[in-house]
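Note to self: keep these together.
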Amino acid sequence: MDQGLAKKLFEEGAFLILVDMPKGTEFGMDWNSWITGPKFKGVKMIPPGLHFIFYSSNGKHGGHSSPRSGFFHFFKQREIFISHWDVNNEEIQFSHKSVDEMNSLRENLKNLDKNLAPYPYDTLEKWVSLTDWINNDVMVKLQPENGKIQSVPELISESNVSPSGREMSEESVKVPRSSAVDEDGLPILKPKPGTEIKFSMIPKQWYPPNATPHEISKHSVDSSYILGQIIKNSSQPEDLLGELQFAFVCFVLGQVLDAFEQWKSLVNVLCSCDDLLKEHQKLYESLLTVFYHQLNEIPKDFFVDVVSSNNFLVSTLTILFSNLQTEGIDASLQKRGKQFQKYLTKKFKWNFKSEPDDWAPVVVEI
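Structure:
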């Protein structure tokens, strides 16, 4: 990198300071990961905007990596974000410093320079293309109350959770033991309150309450009703794209299985929309771009079910491409849909011409 540019980025970029992170820790930011050395103390020249920091310790597991953890943060220009390594819990803890301490640290940045890894700008464009719809409001809305994204959820007994969703103290737990086990006698566990990602609720039933048999049949193949309900609970329709990207990052980089399930559910709802699609054509123009960047980052056979040999994405995207060609859809969006379908067929050898099994008519008896 040109020295003049490097100096400017050092002066204008943000800093992530990590105190006492042990040697041999897997540490990553955005689409990059490293194994830390003995002198590592953080990252410099971070471009302003959203970033995802993740890590996995090798400390207490005999050389085996611990489950991955991470967090999102919107870095401001010239911000210094300080954190330290918690030896007991083997995780990053956020540090709060006084104004005087921060000023002293800023004056000492050049002395820390040799211990700070430069942000890898060669992957910035990819990172931005995969997260450009995650604004600060979307991040705050979705991230857990404790701010941590954990690949392995912290679980507690259902009997230790109050009706308000808060964890109860041992003294206040008076629920009989039988209420905390399932029919097989196994304890019923739930994520510890404050640790779960606050994804949008997507009901399995897509039809409204008290729906007639005809309405049930209609909404079983057209997700317009349930998509409309999700959009009503969002600040703007595009927040769905932010959640789709948030879930994708949490799964791919955070290794959160529940995030993958949420991603699949969102994809299914968005691709199965017919009537409401005409009202949100700009949303679908952007959705095709989001899909393009996400699908370029996964293996070709990732979504193939080993047992059924059924590709989830082929069936859902077949429905989307069909809906994009219906009457009332703008010609430019129809063209984009055809171009994207052609691109996927060429890249992945996916066949979008055969009718999916779940397109069989849904018959509701009266």
